[in-house]
Design goal:
The chain has helices at residues 32-37, 85-91, 152-159; strands at residues 2-5, 14-21, 41-48, 54-56, 61-63, 74-81, 98-107, 116-125, 134-135, 165-169, 175-179. The protein is mainly beta. It has one domain (2-153): Hypothetical upf0131 protein ytfp. Pfam families: GGACT. The active site is at 92 (proton acceptor). GO terms for molecular function: gamma-glutamylaminecyclotransferase activity.
């Protein structure tokens, strides 16, 4: 879904895009700061309309391309300026590790009657799942204890951000320093 809106980050109005995240980019997850740094805004929780396969690859999950998984995959929908998709693609290793594809979602409302269907972008694993991948049968990834999947300098360069270092929570009560 795209909309043209005024933007404080860009000189002229820009198209906006919606993205479905289901792992370490979700709120309170290890890589959530990436969305914040890109100016993304939370829209709603959601789940895939069709059953899909979500696997745990260790440091992060992957949504597989198969259309016949064990359950709906649960996550969050975010809105961001379309120009922010390029650095997000780079962060996700697109197109070699993940590819960005449209997926049909049931956007959550306060009741089932208020839910509605929308097609939004998401990142789908571009490779066959490794044999070590564990299927997440309930379709809900819990990112607690997972760390940034690329180092802080790479994140800063990919997102073209700079400035002060900022501490973010890390597993087991440690701290990770990451450029802001």
């Amino acid at each position: 879904m795209h909309a043209t809106v005024p933007s404080a980050r860009y000189a002229e109005p820009v198209q906006e895009a919606r993205i479905f995240v289901y792992g370490t980019l979700m709120r309170d997850a290890a890589n959530h700061r990436v969305l914040v740094d890109l100016g993304a805004r939370f829209v709603a929780t959601a789940r895939t309309l069709a059953p899909r396969t979500l696997v745990d690859l260790g440091p992060y999950p992957a949504l597989l391309r198969d259309a016949q998984g064990p359950s709906a995959v649960h996550g969050e929908v975010w809105t961001l300026a379309e120009p922010a998709l390029a650095p997000l693609d780079a962060f996700e290793g697109c197109p070699t590790l993940y590819v960005r594809e449209l997926v049909e979602l049931s956007i959550d409302g306060s009741t089932d009657e208020e839910s509605f269907v929308e097609s939004v972008w998401t990142y789908v694993f571009a490779r066959p799942a490794p044999t070590s991948a564990k299927v997440i049968f309930e379709g809900k990834y819990r990112a607690k204890g997972h760390v940034l999947k690329i180092d802080a300098t790479e994140v800063s360069e990919l997102l073209d951000i700079g400035g002060e270092n900022q501490e973010i929570a890390a597993p087991a009560g440690g701290k990770v320093r990451r450029p802001r």
